[in-house]
Amino acid sequence: MIRTPDQRVRVFVSSALGELAAERQAVRDAVSALRLVPVLFELGARPHPARNVYRAYLAQSQVFVGIYWQSYGWVAPGEQVSGLEDEYQLSAGLPRLIYVKGPAPDREPRRARPRWPGAAGAGHAAAGPRAGGRRR
Asked: Hey, which residues does 98 pair with through a beta bridge?
């Protein structure tokens, strides 16, 4: 993709807000150092429902980075999946970098489903003391 000089590639960062703060900051710093634009849900207050915000942010992004550990994320009333899983599913057409921290002794059961990153047989990158943040 060739962009005009006034446009930079946006990198959507998906992760549970209650965990991995240091990792989220490291990704934000790395993306910025590459002169790309990190798109994180927590940047700024908005007068819109959370689902509308992350979906709009994701629609405007060109790369998806998922950083996961133990939390499955919050499931809004009336929804079947968490915002994290929804973001992951909606990112299917984007280049993805997925990092799953381990070990995760308290991983929430819904995080271990086969279609979700980090589950056995899911075929995604892992990050942790031994995995070294491999990419596939």
From this structure: 66
pLDDT at residue 135 is higher than 60? no
Q: What is the pLDDT of residue 13?
A: 96
Beta strand pairing call for 10-14 and 37-40: parallel
Residue 103 carries which side chain, given as an amino acid letter? P
Q: Could you tell me how far CA 92 lies from the centroid of its own chain?
A: 12
User: pTM above 0.90?
Assistant: no
Query: CB–CB of 46/54 below 8 Å?
Result: no
Angle at 13 between CA 8 and CA 15, to 5 degrees: 175
How far apart CA 82 and CA 24 sit, in angstroms, is 19
> Candidates 2.60.120.10, 3.40.50.450, 3.40.50.300, 3.40.50.150; correct CATH number of 10-112?
3.40.50.450
